[in-house]
Records
---
Amino acid sequence: MRKLDQCPRVKINSTYCICTVQSCNKRGLCCECLHYHRQRNELPACYFTPEEEKTSNRSVEFFIQRRTGK
């Protein structure tokens, strides 16, 4: 059984996902997405505005910079 089949919220989560990587196998699996990006010292797309997400920069530093203007 695939992980997508095991998550009861996958359809709901997918409607809110702004990730621009359409082929992502974690789409709708928020816990998998968070774990993946956390291992890379990144944040998932949902932490960013649609404009920020288009840059593909998911770094924590970019997130902080955009929020503080530094």
Note: The chain has one domain: 3-68.
---
Amino acid sequence: MEIKLLGTGTKDELEKRIQKVAVAGKLSRFSGNVFEALEASNDYENNLKMIKRIIKMGHKSIIEHDYLVFAICDVSPIIEQTIIGNRLTSFTIKSRREVDFRKVGYYIPNFRGKDGKLHKNNDDLQKQYKEHIEWLFNIYAELKDNGAPGEDARFILPYCYHSNIIMGLDARELEKMILYLTKERQSQMQELKEFGEKLYEIVQEKVPYLLETINDVKEDLSNPFEYIENLEPRPELKIIDKTKMISYTKNPDDVVLLSSIMYHYQCSLEQAEEILKKIEAKDKYAKEKMMDIILHKEERRELEQVNFTFQIPISLAILTHLTRHRMHPLLIPEFVPMWNLENYIVPPTIEAKEELKELYMQGINKNIEMFKKFKEQEVMEEDLIYFYLGAQMLNVVTSMNARSLQWICRMRCCNKAQWQIRIIAKDIANMVKDVAPLIGKGLGSTCITDKYCGEGRESCGLINKLS
């Protein structure tokens, strides 16, 4: 694992970053303008003291002006999936669809016993683990070499393979991430804690005003679900058969249209309802035309007034395709307690060829066998998470406003989108169309909704058939 803060790293760069934050802290009570505040904030030590004092009072919005970009090398998807959940952080991640992953390497944990101490058989467990993981990588290579698409062969990859990431975030999110990884339950996972500690090391030199607030926070490893678990035991984990809509805003089409009228005319709901009736009386297609305008304007805030909640069955291999859309509150189960490894998916291209499926199932079954073998030796669950494969299925819950929904469907209903996320996106679009037919007209790939394709030479060609 290697993490590097991108930039010159010079003393001058640090002082300029600190100056920006200090100006933000000074401005609200400064008698002059912002440029005069900037001129008055040229002493590094004084700037640092002021920032520390302000954020210790809880006024942390000022550190959102300090934006940092990190290069992250050789971390597992465990880290990737954990940090990408920070909704105000930006990520670019190496594609598993476009890159061959057979030689990327993988994470090797120190196996611990249930007491959290190094397992007495750690050396032997690590040897067995490495042999097994390398065998799974060979299965991946054989699948690819025998005709399985890379995007489907990756379902057999263990969740310990190395990933590379560019991560951008402001200092407030950085502080939150470090605390989450080093002082909460997630710190019991070795790799996550190591990642958080490496970020902390960088903070010591490059973001010094965060040290005091981070150090002041006490470790809390408590289980927030302990209360309900004491009242009702965990049921057997079952994966739902398809995406389901759990709830939605009542009369979503009308809510969007009325909100548009209310904010434009600055009128009450009752007045807006009367105006909408009058407009419809003059043009029976008024609602359709109004919604079409809203669906295609630059700012579509009206679409944010309605929400739709879904439960979605999805594989680990594809989870980031959903997680990366940041403007929806995705609920993903924690990695521990361990999920049922019997809940897996077989990609259609592999299912269709007997020799590929046989090879794939060898990997699935052997992995379950190895997991059980390690569990019998009472290895700590936080160290068993690397036996998850990309094929592992789980249920997630999320809510999307209609604007986020439109954007996700544009990306994920496209024929070039990965097949599982495309099925999910199309199911979501169809369910929304049933309850909000006018909003539904704006859901789908851009070739369908806008008669436009931005893929250029890489277009699937459907746009030409629709023109």
Note: The longest helix spans residues 122-145.
---
Amino acid sequence: MLNSIINYFTQNNHILSFLGILLFLFTAFIFSNNKRKINWLKILNAFIMQVILAFFILKTQIGSRIFMILADIFVLLYKFADSGIGFLFGSLANQSDSWGFIFVIKVLPVLIFLSSLMSIMFHFGVIQFLVKIISYTIRPILGTSGVETLCVAANSMVGPTGAPLLVKKYIKHLTKSEIMVLMVSGMATINAASLAIYGSMGVSILHMLVASIMSIPGVLLISKILVPETESPQTVAGNKIEMPRDSSNVLDAITIGAIDGLKLAASVSAILLAFISLMAMTDYILLNTIGYSLNFIFSKIFYQIATLLGVEVQDRAVAGALLGQKLVINEFIAYAAFVKSALSEHSRIILTYALCGFSNFSVIGMLIGAIAVLAPEKRTILTKLGLRALLGATLVNLLNAAIASLLI
């Protein structure tokens, strides 16, 4: 028995992944604003849930099968979106022709289709039903409030700006710890639309789905270490939380979703254009002043983190650069570089988890702005928690990657 355990930890860098898990949890403890108030039983329950979910999906046939079916559904949705893309853009949508893969044509329009689909599902109460199932499953185990559990569950479907809208009338009553959960969950997960987008780029949908599910207890775990609950949440006793729809009929839902998707696609296009251009300019300046590129600097700074995730030795410099891009710029840029990189399969799986989240500096402002509009009186708390929430979301993503690395 002991020999089996020793053998397991000495293969595939498992010992490094285990040390990484300990370090990421210890980092959260170091930055806690009230170490004496940490409820270690809740923390332990959240961590056990996170590991069990990962084990069930990655190491059991039934878990793997369920999530493979979900991944196939996302692939099918992309094919449906491709029909609309083909109608609008004709032969330009055929990547086998001489112009190849055109990002703005093959990827961004998928956001419009999925946004409409999510709007339809929300109109008929499907999203609310799924979110409540997840919320009701987690709350009895972890003892979290209704609002914070709901937000964590919803973020994996509707994203960091959509989830606060579901609980907008409760935000002004949230405790500091609940606000921390709301912010960390907004940055530690990716929504369904983004998952489909990255899947169409070549990232494993299966592993992104697993990362999203693992992030639910992971967010609560890290958030409750960084900012433990010291107040009395309004919905801790299980008060019913309503999630009203904002569309009058299904056609209205389609229209609202399409317009929101178009705005999102335009925003993504603008952000990518700006960041990629600025990266090129920064690289040029750095290379001609200090002789080093931005990716080289990232690879040096984040090399040791890649090591603690269990990434293969030959891939650690590239992995460090990708982790830096994700934190400083955004996950879109990191995944775009990720799919072109020559990484081993083991390292590729680990990095899929580490990059699966909106945790970057630019999202802090977006998240604060979106929540502050709904509850202006919370703006001061939001700004004070901004960097701590980014740290928390980053730790959730790294913890997911280290746990997955320990199991593969």
Note: The CA atoms of residues 373 and 379 lie 9 Å apart.
---
Amino acid sequence: MFFETEKNDHGLARPPFKSCVVPRTIGWLSTLSPDGIPNLAPYSQFTNLTFDPPYVAISINQGNLANRKDTVNNIEQTGEFVHNMVTYDLREAMNITAAAFPPGADEFKEAGLEKAPSVLVKPWRVAASPVQLECIYFQTIRLPGNGRVGTADIIIGKVVGIHIKDEFITPDGKIDILALKPLARLGYSDYTTVDRVFEIAPHSLKGDTSDLRLGLEGAAGSMPKL
């Protein structure tokens, strides 16, 4: 099949686009309002952008009333946020924090989640999350959209600190992804988790793959300078 997105004439019972870009990391973002009120919400349009230094980006669509989300307002006004990895064991708590709580609600309390202090930024971390990224705000790119929720704010943040629970680090210095069981978004109301890992060795026409490996692993500070 083929359809033009502007015409939206796919003829399917369910919209297919979000199932064409999968799986997607869930950006579970904790922020503070300017008044110090904690906020926690998940967003499925989240990714890393680069690694030296590390940046991440989150695309956050407007609400049903064409309002910008609390997460966007908090990040822009305070300049800080934390990404908390969502695992299979945290799926129900994450789902609770996705609800449209009124401004001023503490989603940590609503989901029964313990808070942990950050080191370099003020927003709380989800204590049960095995990996957290402390971030400072860099830039917003606003994408115009159709209807009330189509417009999106792309938040770019610089990662200044990373927490990894020691029990999820293998003896050879890798993160144990299978033990973590990170959760990812698919389309519709579907999710998936990582239950299989395999390696594909990098290929180089020149035969030397050392630079490729450094890039694939995100080896900050060790890439050759131009």
Note: The mean pLDDT is 92.
